[in-house]
């Protein structure tokens, strides 16, 4: 039994901890025997010294074993989970889950709420009146069996120590550590008995980890640690240097997701959904090639079967399906303010961080966990990347409860658009595929 | 007003904090507004990123201003303080204070207790029956005026935040940070209104900081930060690769100090006392040259005036002067065990760390702050460095309350002595003088 101080000193010296040492540490944190001040010093030492993949696997496993494991044995279909590191306008889970389910792969997804400039899937689902994100494990499993997809909220039963550790990281400047991020994500994902996991690691100004090289390192670490821990894991590194699609805000994003599920919607939202879906089908063994997977998925979007799955999921969760059939009901904000271009030209850049922060101001997000959100608030982009605009033409519309709220964000949203004289090319959202195990 | 997390992140990024930011941090720690887990994360970031001299000065000042400042204005003589980073057999303060006082320089000294393998001056003084280390500030000042020297214990009034910070450092692996060590030492020393400070920074296996280069860096930082904070500071880097003198343990060491004060005692104890005393007289302006200072001090040892000061200090502190006149009373342990050499040759090395740890086992030290010590316990070295020994001749004697306690340490003490076929030279204890300000 090594004392907590000795473990801190060992990590401080840059030495690797043994799996048993990591187990002791996590057990001590979970039980409260190791006080927060020792935990935070340890976390800061990890920030500076890092952890090997072997240590990160041990940390992930130790964290997941502080809670319940949900094996989902009664679900016969192959089960593939998806996780995004969070972005602005990221409604992909809402499209992707039902779509992949329509292709015969079960999608058990436990999502979070929005915090800071990035939105959360739960808040988007709750824009649908009646949708319950707090199903118990049994009901979750039943919906998965019946519908093939269920999106619920984090339960306190999965890796509970992660909450405790994250709460300390948040207030001690130890959030941005790759092994700590990896263990936090994977401890919850591995507690769920899926057959594979597809990760969407975002890079760019709207992402949690803006730097592309750092995002790649995180993606590789997630794949490597996940595989060492026995899960099939694939990661896409995707572009978050502009908002996804044309909407930011809960009801607005759910409406956009429904459009995509009906075979329409913005091109980039559809493409990112398909790219992640292809990986999920390949991991599940439900398609032999990426081309075949893509054809299956395109068909499910275009023939209404993906939309039908979404509708059934909403129903199974107690949600009002009239909102699904008439998604304009989701965006009935009292006040709508156009943001006009002050010049003519082409939209060359849209700052996702600025729009993410503006959407908080409009009431769509939160800066503290206990705040509530306005489901109808948000931003609708009318001039996307590459679009030609003339002076006084709207770039975006702000949706808010009051004129005051909307006007307070007008300047920031206007400044988020860069208008250039010439049209600039912009690339695909998918920047990199990380499929193979990497060296630790 | 910068938030604690922002201060942690700034330091984590290797940036220097502004003095006002350090003030806020220290005030928050002192008031309890900043929780221990944020403090410990900050301290670990300081461990990895360091602090500039400017930051360390600000930290020292902020810490000292959480408590009382004792100006000692009624003491007319120049006042010079001394601090040692702690060693094994380090009874120098007991000889040095009275000696320097005899040369006309007042010595206000606030000392600590032993913890771990290094002893503490307070425990040594308390080996004298009746000696009170807990004089109030007024009495301390009176003894200083009347006798010219007073040795008391740390009061809760000086830099109280240091205790809080040190308690957290001790259990979070953040002790070995030069700026934190410097601020801890100097915040208490600067709170005392002395005209100068002489530091004894130990290097070698028995020291808190064994590596000579690290000890030099610490000494330079102490001198530089102390001077920037407005105090005249000089440091000697001294050798702690063998115990000082011939005794380890409270009563034994006090006896040895009395021998030195009477003009006798082991050569190295006397020489180290003189070397530090010379610096104190020079800092005080009480001697023009090192040679003149040394002559004055040698005379005070040899003519009994230094001893007389010690006797008066003990009396003023309520101590029994009969123990001073008959110091053999201080070493009346129930049991005395000789450790015999198993070979013939010359003593080539004596491991101070092993003897320091053995003295704890014998009852002379403590591993936890709340333990009490046995004043009569300890180790008497009979074969010092360079001495010729024959087989079965005693290397040392162990003093303890019981045979069991002594026998438990016999092997460790025996192994602490290295006997070689040839006599090896050993150098002076003073390894380096740090007098001038260094660049930060």
Give the tally of β-strands of chain A: 13
Oligomer: homodimer
Structural class of chain A: alpha/beta
Total helical elements of chain A: 17
How would you sum up the global shape of chain A?
A: globular
Order of helices and strands of chain A: HHHHEHEHHEHHEHEEHHHHHEEHEEEHEE
User: From the alpha-carbon coordinates, what is the Rg of chain A to the nearest angstrom?
Assistant: 22 Å
The N- to C-terminal Cα distance of chain A equals: 27 Å
Share of residues in helices of chain A: 40-55%
For the sheet with most strands of chain A, the description reads:
4 strands, mixed
Give, in spatial order, the strands making up the sheet with the most strands of chain A: 1-4-5-13
Q: Which features does this protein show?
A:
homodimer, 440 residues, alpha/beta, 4-stranded mixed β-sheet, 4-stranded antiparallel β-sheet, 13 strands, 46% helix
Description:
Two copies of one chain form a homodimer. The first copy, chain A, is of the alpha/beta class. Chain A has 17 helices and 13 strands. Chain A starts with a helix and ends in a 6-residue tail after the last strand. At the A-B interface, helix 1, helix 3 and helix 8 of A face helix 1, helix 3 and helix 8 of B.
Brief overview:
Two copies of one chain form a homodimer. Chain A is 46% helix and 15% strand.
Architecture blueprint of SSEs:
The structure is a homodimer of 440-residue chains.
Chain A: H1 4-12, H2 19-31, H3 36-49, H4 53-64, E1 80-84, H5 92-102, E2 107-111, H6 121-125, H7 137-147, E3 149-153, H8 160-172, H9 178-190, E4 196-203, H10 212-228, E5 232-239, E6 247-248, H11 250-261, H12 267-284, H13 290-302, H14 305-316, H15 321-325, E7 335-340, E8 345-350, H16 352-362, E9 378-381, E10 388-389, E11 394-400, H17 403-416, E12 417-420, E13 430-434
Parallel strand pairs in A: 1-4, 2-3, 4-5
Antiparallel strand pairs in A: 5-13, 6-9, 7-11, 8-10, 8-12, 9-11
């Amino acid at each position: 039994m090594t004392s907590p101080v000795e473990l801190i000193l060992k990590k401080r010296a840059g030495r690797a901890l043994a799996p048993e040492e990591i187990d002791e540490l996590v057990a001590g944190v979970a039980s409260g025997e190791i006080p927060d001040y020792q935990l935070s010093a340890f976390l800061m030492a990890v920030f500076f010294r890092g952890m090997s993949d072997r240590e990160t696997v041990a940390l992930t496993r130790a964290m997941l074993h502080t809670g319940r494991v949900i094996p989902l044995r009664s679900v016969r279909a192959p089960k593939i989970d998806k996780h995004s590191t969070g972005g602005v306008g990221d409604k992909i889970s809402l499209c992707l889950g039902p779509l992949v389910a329509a292709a015969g792969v079960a999608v058990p997804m436990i999502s979070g709420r929005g915090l800071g400039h990035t939105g959360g899937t739960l808040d988007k689902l709750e824009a649908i009146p009646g949708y319950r994100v707090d199903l118990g494990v049994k009901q979750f499993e039943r919906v998965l069996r019946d519908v093939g997809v269920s999106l619920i909220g984090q339960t306190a039963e999965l890796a509970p120590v992660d909450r405790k550790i994250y709460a300390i990281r948040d207030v001690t400047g130890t959030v941005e550590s790759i092994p700590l991020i990896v263990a936090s994500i994977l401890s919850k994902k591995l507690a769920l008995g899926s057959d594979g996991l597809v990760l969407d690691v975002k890079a760019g100004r709207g992402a949690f980890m803006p730097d592309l090289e750092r995002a790649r390192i995180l993606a590789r670490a997630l794949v490597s640690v996940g595989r060492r821990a026995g899960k099939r894991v694939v990661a896409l590194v995707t572009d978050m240097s502009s908002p996804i699609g044309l909407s930011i805000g809960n009801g607005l994003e759910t409406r956009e997701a429904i459009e995509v599920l009906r075979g329409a919607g913005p091109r980039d939202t559809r493409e990112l959904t398909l790219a992640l879906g292809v990986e999920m089908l390949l991991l599940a063994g439900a398609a032999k090639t990426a081309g075949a997977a893509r054809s299956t998925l395109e068909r499910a979007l275009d023939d209404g079967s993906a939309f039908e799955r979404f509708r059934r999921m909403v129903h199974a969760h107690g949600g009002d399906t009239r909102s699904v059939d008439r998604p304009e009901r989701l965006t009935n904000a009292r006040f709508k303010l156009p943001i006009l271009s002050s010049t003519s030209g082409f939209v060359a850049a849209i700052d996702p961080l600025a729009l993410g922060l503006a959407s908080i101001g409009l009431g769509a997000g939160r800066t503290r966990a206990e705040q509530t959100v306005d489901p109808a608030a948000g931003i609708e982009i009318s001039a996307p990347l590459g679009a030609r605009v003339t002076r006084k033409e709207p770039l975006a519309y702000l949706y808010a409860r009051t004129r005051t709220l909307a006007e307070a964000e007008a300047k920031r949203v206007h400044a988020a658009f860069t208008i250039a004289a010439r049209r600039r090319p912009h690339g695909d959202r998918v920047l990199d595929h990380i499929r193979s195990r990497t060296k630790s």
